[in-house]
Amino acid sequence: MAISSSSAYHLVFCLLVTLLIPLPSHAADPDPLQDFCVANLNSTLSINGFPCKPLSQVTSEDFFFSGLAKEGGTNNVFGSIVTPGSVSFFPGVNTLGISMNRVDFAPGGVNVPHSHPLATETGVVIKGRLLVGFVSTSNIFYSKVLMPGQVFVIPRGLVHFQKNVGIGKAQTFTTFNSQNPGVNLLPRTLFASKPPIPNDVLTKAFQVEDYVVDSIKSKFAA
């Protein structure tokens, strides 16, 4: 069947538009349209992100953050602590498509399996020996033990973890291509959601008895 010249032109035009227009999925956050937009964390407006502070209220302090300077306490069941530098704690990164975390580990501590649905993660080991691993959507496990100065990357949305496999403490700094990478901690997501996931769903998923699910849920009751 012959295609008219006008139809062919329309098809080519549509293909060009599709290729040339940036798609939202190409980046975690949209590009900013101004120099900066310091987050107004007290605003009652609900938008995808935070509205900007009035320029007259912006100060130098909005662009500096000392929250990652101190070691976090690791006296918890996981033996690790994440100190966030996302927009909720560092308003100056609002709309800039970047944020940062510090993670401290006690000996044997684990940053438990989790995912960041809104961002890709890169990190550098500062101290200790860390086993870093993630699982692809093909269910393949990738991992390596890293030393200070070595870097890792976790593709957006994939389940991953870090474990201190050294003798002493460990520390890493991680960055994200989003002001708010989001996080789903698998143990708490599955066993401490509110309202809770029904037991029969979890027993079927993990092929265990009801009392096993109740026992796990009780550990996250607080």
Provide a brief overview of the structure:
With 222 residues, the chain is an alpha+beta fold. The protein has helices spanning 5-20, 186-191, 199-206, 210-219; strands spanning 80-85, 99-105, 110-115, 121-127, 130-135, 141-146, 151-154, 159-164, 170-176, 184-185.
Offer a few descriptive terms.
single chain, 222 residues, alpha+beta, 5-stranded antiparallel beta sheet, 4 helices, 26% strand
What oligomeric state is this? single chain
Secondary structure class reads alpha+beta
Q: Which range does the strand content fall in? A: 25-35%
Order of helices and strands: HEEEEEEEEEEHHH
Number of helices: 4
Could you tell me the radius of gyration in angstroms?
22 Å
Segments where pLDDT lies below 50 for 5+ residues?
Answer: 15-26
Give the biggest sheet: 5 strands, antiparallel
* Strand order across the largest sheet: 1-2-9-4-7
Please give the alpha-carbon distance between the first and last residues. 68 Å
Determine the mean pLDDT.
88
Give a verbal description of the structure.
The protein is an alpha+beta fold. The protein contains four helices and ten strands, in the order αββββββββββααα. It has helices spanning 5-20, 186-191, 199-206, 210-219, and strands spanning 80-85, 99-105, 110-115, 121-127, 130-135, 141-146, 151-154, 159-164, 170-176, 184-185. The strands form two sheets. The protein has a five-stranded antiparallel sheet, with no helix packed on it. Strands 6-5-8-3-10 form a five-stranded antiparallel sheet. A hairpin with a 5-residue loop joins strand 5 (130-135) and strand 6 (141-146). The longest helix has 16 residues, at 5-20. The chain is globular.
